Amino acid sequence: MALPAAAAAAYQSVANMAGASATAAPAAAAPGASFSDFLTGAVKDSINAIGQGEQAATSQVTGKANIVDVVNSVNSAELTLDTVVAVRDKVVAAYQAIMTMPI
Fold first, then answer.
1. For the chain, how long is the longest CA-to-CA vector?
2. Contact in structure between 52 and 74 (CB atoms under 8 Å)
3. Rounded Cα distance, 61 and 22, in Å
4. What is the pLDDT of residues 30-49, one digit of tens each?
5. Residue 20 — left, alpha, or beta (φ > 0 → left; ψ -120 to 50 → alpha)?
6. 38, 28 Cβ separation under 8 angstroms
7. Is the whole model's pTM more than 0.70, yes or no?
């Protein structure tokens, strides 16, 4: 279900906005920023989150990690993967809808 992932992303977005100054321009309006740059950053963040989950699980197997940190990291990786799959499904559905449109 993508709803928890969307809620987590919204929470993170609000937390980032609260940390920024009130006069700062949004990241999407930054000069030179494009959707491609945004998408590239999102994919890199997803890969990093999943990698951290894998590292935490490996550390737990060797007995070097706290179980709470492992659960949090793995949960974050799972939410990230669910979000990526949901976005992929929406992109495929949009592509299919475009391909069936009459010219």
1. 61
2. no
3. 45
4. 666 788 898 899 899 999 99
5. beta
6. yes
7. no
| Domain residue spans of the chain | 34-103
The residue written with tokens 């979000």 in the block is 83
**How does pLDDT run across 85-101, given as a tens digit for each residue?**
999 999 999 999 999 99
Question: Using CA atoms in the order 54, 58, 60, 65, what is the torsion angle rounded to 10 degrees?
Answer: -80
Residue 59 token pair: 């550390």
DSSP line for the chain: --HHHHHHHHHHHHHHHHHS-TTSPPGGGSTT--HHHHHHHHHHHHHHHHHHHHHHHHHHHTT-S-HHHHHHHHHHHHHHHHHHHHHHHHHHHHHHHHHTS--
